[in-house]
Amino acid sequence: MTGTGLLAFGEALAMFSTRSGKLRHATSVEVGIAGSEAMVAIGVARLGVSSSWAGRLGADEPGALVLARLREEGVDTSAVRTDRRAPTGLMIKDFRNTDAMRAAFYRNGSAGTRLCPEDVPEDHIREAGVLHLSGLTPGLSDSAAKAVFAAAETAREEGVPVSLDVDYAHALWYPEDAADVLYDLVGLCDIVFIGDDAARLLGLDGDPQELAAALAELGPDQVIVELGPRGAVAELHGSRYDVPNYPVRSVDTEGADDAFVAGYLAEFLTGASPDRRLRTAAACRAFSLTVPGETTSLPDREELKVLTRPR
User: Fold this and answer.
1) Of 242, 258, 275, 300, which is the active-site residue?
2) How many domains does the chain have?
3) pLDDT tens digits for 252-307?
4) Residue 1 falls inside a structural domain
5) DSSP per position, the chain
6) What percent of the chain has a predicted confidence (pLDDT) above 70?
7) Is 258 considered catalytic here?
8) 222 is in which domain, residue-wise?
9) Residues 108-144: pLDDT tens digits?
10) Prediction pTM value
11) CATH number, domain containing residue 174
């Protein structure tokens, strides 16, 4: 590994959300951005590690919003492609409480769905310390899936570790289609984050420890099975770890998994031990639960100190 920073490759969207119930009843909305890969890029940057995001955006105000927010967070966007023939995707979110959140995505024909192998930033991959992907982007379109595989294969050829958050979204594709694609993608990766439900989607069975071991046999050297409020289990470099959660009062679960991934990858990029990677990941997830919003909930180092300070 010759690089030092993160390169996240995939989809980003503009987001409009309300905290006052359904959109039809709102008199104002909050404006932000969404997209798993973009959130991880911001999360890593907040923790003081070099970070960049690459993908395809429309030549429109939502696309300009995405770029502006990423740049404000110190995320490099020099590898972003602008598509003048398609709009930036949108996410509209209604929020009542932690148990009643609804998101609607407007992606059909969006720039993100037009992502293709020609968009893969090969030079940026060569300079990265890790390439991060998600299981959402391959579900956008056939060309987006090919782009994700092309990025992973380029990283492998260059000796750059590949990270994957296996995040299955039923709204994007059928389970049987997703299972085949994501199974093959896992085999190209070095670091895999996955929920136990998604692991079973891939045809694996057993308790979380058995799922982690089975995934490691597919090729990844680092597998983290995320269990939500039950914590996580991991198989890292042949050793097993249990990852408890920090006890916090949850106000918003959106973005918690991205925060976990960002915490782990930030520490991985700084050469931290497996135990520290996992502790920081768990702390980032816990902190994100206490703050509403995907972007606003991602912590920096000083905020993590408050959460992890001995009591």
Assistant:
1) 258
2) 1
3) 777 789 999 999 999 999 999 999 999 999 999 988 887 766 777 788 888 887 76
4) no
5) ----SEEEES--EEEEEESSBSGGG-S--EEEEE-HHHHHHHHHHHTT--EEEE-EEESSHHHHHHHHHHHHTT-B-TTPEEETTSPPPEEEEEEEETTEEEEEEE-TT-TGGG--GGG--HHHHHH-SEEEEESSGGGT-HHHHHHHHHHHHHHHHHT--EEEEE---TTTS-HHHHHHHHHHHHTT-SEEEEEHHHHHHTT--SSHHHHHHHHHTTS-SEEEEE-GGG-EEEEETTEEEEEPPPP---S--TTHHHHHHHHHHHHHHTT--HHHHHHHHHHHHHHHHTSSSTTTT---HHHHHHHHS--
6) 94
7) yes
8) 6-308
9) 999 999 999 999 999 999 999 999 999 999 999 999 9
10) 0.94
11) 3.40.1190.20
